[in-house]
């Protein structure tokens, strides 16, 4: 394909995918605008696979055509001159979105400054950068109001918890990443206790993994478990409830399920399922309280059990239909992940299924992507897009670095998963491609 023809093809993909997204929004109401001050009904839809598929192509094609046509120096500096996280940390920590709820027509930075004790001219610069990104609206000079995007930063939204975790704990790891790569004592290690974030935190005398660090801080641990509910909207994780046939099964084990970010919605959508939540005792204390409040009928009907489990040392409850692990394996290097899966294998009955719900890093090799598409059902990008959708799938690669910074762990390619699960005695049956993440379905080998 000639160079100009590739650009024309990318323009066609942009136009087609944008129109697909518009049509999906119109099924739920009007199309949103950048300054809209309320959520759109599609924002909280359980199944967003079609929308995420359209956006994946749209983002990938837009970024690829910009990187092609812009001068290289322009694009290279844009890669590093990114200060959004520092600004988001300020407005999230100071509850700016919650304050602006009381001022739908906007609030001048001078007045907002008095409420949060941040110098007004600096505050204006922070908010203007974010508004340029589409987060907040500058309705008049130095007067800012909420919009659909800034509402995500409300205290009541679980996404805010995960955002704060990224701009604080993950940022600590990112800040010393280079040093950990060059430190001869740890550069070649995948020990979770010396992951970059812990390398930074350990300077204050803290030891252990990031989970050990959180366990010593009740507020931080509770915020982390709440943040896992945010993955439902960030990753579109709840699409698994409609895409996978849970109605055919009667028992589900949520391994490392925390407070029930997955199993709470499961209990409401598939009331035929008896759920077991496995996690450490401190997580289950929080879980019992949340279930009593949000799904008392499931508790009263004995449709949920809370069972302590250290998945490195213990075998889950045996012989159940489905064993579900969402964003569990990616928290651990290969050795620890192998222990989890080997113990899980011991619990499986002849008809049991294991569902690993994680990001799957797509191949940039068009040849390998074609193999995975034809043999395993993994969707590859249309040409001339990069085979992995380019920036359309960037979060999986950003998340890969997030896992490295926090845990010395990683997101995995499909080949990585196959190597890991084969050793544990699992056989891949199907890949459920949910646009952003995938669900890998296994049986006992």
From TrEMBL:
The source's superkingdom equals: Eukaryota
Q: Where is the O-methyltransferase C-terminal domain?
A: 209-426
Q: Name one GO biological process term.
A: methylation
Picking any one GO molecular function of the record gives: O-methyltransferase activity
Going by the UniProt record, its keywords in alphabetical order are: Methyltransferase, S-adenosyl-L-methionine, Transferase
Which PANTHER family does the entry link to? Answer: O-METHYLTRANSFERASE CICE (PTHR43712:SF2), PUTATIVE (AFU_ORTHOLOGUE AFUA_4G14580)-RELATED (PTHR43712)
Q: What is this protein called?
A: O-methyltransferase-domain-containing protein
């Amino acid at each position: 394909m000639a160079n100009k023809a590739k650009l024309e093809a990318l323009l066609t993909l942009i136009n087609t995918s944008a129109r697909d997204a518009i049509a999906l929004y119109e099924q739920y109401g009007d199309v949103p605008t950048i300054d809209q001050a309320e959520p759109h009904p599609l924002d909280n839809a359980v199944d967003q696979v079609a929308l995420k598929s359209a956006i994946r192509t749209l983002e990938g094609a837009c970024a690829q055509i910009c990187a092609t046509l812009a001068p290289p120096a322009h694009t290279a500096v844009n890669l590093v001159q990114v200060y959004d996280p520092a600004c988001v940390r300020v407005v999230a920590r100071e509850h700016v979105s919650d304050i602006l709820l009381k001022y739908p027509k906007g609030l001048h930075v001078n007045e907002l400054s008095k409420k949060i004790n941040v110098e007004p001219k600096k505050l204006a610069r922070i908010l203007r950068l974010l508004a340029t990104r589409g987060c907040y609206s500058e309705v008049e000079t130095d007067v800012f109001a909420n919009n659909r995007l800034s509402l995500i930063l409300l205290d009541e939204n679980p996404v805010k918890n995960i955002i704060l975790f990224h701009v604080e704990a993950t940022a600590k790891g990112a800040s010393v990443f280079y040093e950990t790569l060059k430190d001869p004592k740890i550069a070649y290690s995948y020990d979770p206790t010396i992951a970059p974030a812990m390398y930074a935190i350990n300077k204050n005398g803290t030891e252990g993994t990031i989970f050990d660090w959180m366990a010593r801080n009740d507020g931080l641990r509770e915020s982390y478990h709440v943040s896992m509910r945010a993955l439902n909207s960030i990753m579109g994780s709840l699409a698994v409830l409609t895409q996978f046939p849970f109605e055919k099964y009667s028992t589900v084990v949520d391994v490392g399920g925390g407070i029930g970010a997955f199993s709470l919605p499961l209990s409401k959508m598939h009331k035929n399922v008896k759920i077991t939540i496995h996690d450490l005792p401190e997580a289950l204390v929080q879980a019992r309280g949340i279930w009593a409040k949000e799904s008392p009928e499931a508790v009263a009907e004995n449709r949920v059990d809370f069972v302590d489990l250290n998945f490195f040392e213990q075998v889950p409850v045996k012989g159940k239909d489905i064993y579900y692990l969402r964003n569990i394996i990616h928290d651990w290097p290969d050795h620890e992940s192998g222990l989890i899966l080997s113990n899980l294998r011991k619990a499986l009955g002849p008809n049991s299924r294991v569902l690993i719900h994680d990001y799957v890093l797509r191949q940039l090799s068009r040849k390998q992507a074609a193999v995975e598409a034809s043999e395993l059902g993994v969707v590859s990008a249309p040409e001339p897009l990069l085979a992995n959708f380019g920036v359309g799938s960037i979060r999986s690669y950003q998340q890969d670095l997030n896992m490295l910074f926090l845990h010395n762990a990683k997101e995995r390619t499909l080949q990585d998963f196959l190597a890991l699960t084969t050793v544990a005695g699992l056989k891949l049956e199907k890949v459920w491609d949910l646009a952003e993440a995938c669900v890998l379905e296994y049986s006992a080998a």
